[in-house]
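Figure 6 in text form: structure in, sequence out.
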């Protein structure tokens, strides 16, 4: 094993629930339901499949005001800034470094979003490579992001482990030929992650050596 590749949203930092809550509040304020079954299709991917603003505007028959849009963004920011790194992240980064493993991030979000938060949290410099949707043709569930990180780190798929929180992310990692650990969050907890090689309740559930041992073929 030579590398660990992390997803970002909902795995390193819980941005998923704040983003969902900020849109849910807008929908409720307009007397509309935000369809969760459609929302989860974009978790770990992009808004190409379902765009919450466009969907609400179609339901209302009019565009949202700039004030509503800006208030929603402000609410999202407020909720995200209240979040801390998710359990086990720092410990696994430290463990990977002590074991001489390379570290990467593969995210369907923009580089400004991912690097900005990683920098704010003081861990951007801990990663050897960050690849975002700006860097590839297709975001997850396509394997492009993981393939890009493998190339950047100079490792093969068999030498890496991906850590994800969503079905879209797990599919992307597996299509790239990478073993994948799934750590569901509050948004993805009800989704099917059985295609991952290992599913844990939290990254703090196992030490990194224990996690890697669980991924061995004999286990």
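Output sequence:
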């Amino acid at each position: 094993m030579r590398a660990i590749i992390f997803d970002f949203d909902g795995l390193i930092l819980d941005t998923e629930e704040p983003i969902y809550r900020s849109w849910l509040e807008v929908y409720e304020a307009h007397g509309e339901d935000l369809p969760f079954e459609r929302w989860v299709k974009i978790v770990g991917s992009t808004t190409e499949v379902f765009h919450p603003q466009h969907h609400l505007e179609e339901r209302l028959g009019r565009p949202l005001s700039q004030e509503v849009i800006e208030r929603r963004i402000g609410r999202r920011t407020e909720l995200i800034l209240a979040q801390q790194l998710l359990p086990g992240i720092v410990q696994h980064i430290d463990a990977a470094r002590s074991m001489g493993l390379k570290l990467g991030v593969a995210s369907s979000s923009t580089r400004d979003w991912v690097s900005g938060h990683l920098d704010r949290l003081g861990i951007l410099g801990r990663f050897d490579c960050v690849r975002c949707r700006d860097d590839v043709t297709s975001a997850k569930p396509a394997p492009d992001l993981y393939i890009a990180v493998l190339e950047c780190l100079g490792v093969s798929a068999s030498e890496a482990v991906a850590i994800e929180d969503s079905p879209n992310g797990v599919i992307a990692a597996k299509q790239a030929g990478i073993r994948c650990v799934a750590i569901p969050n509050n948004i993805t907890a009800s989704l099917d992650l059985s295609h991952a090689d290992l599913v844990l309740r939290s990254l703090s559930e196992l030490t990194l050596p224990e996690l890697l041992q669980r991924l061995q073929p004999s286990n």
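Caption detail: Residues 23 and 52 are 7 Å apart (CA to CA).
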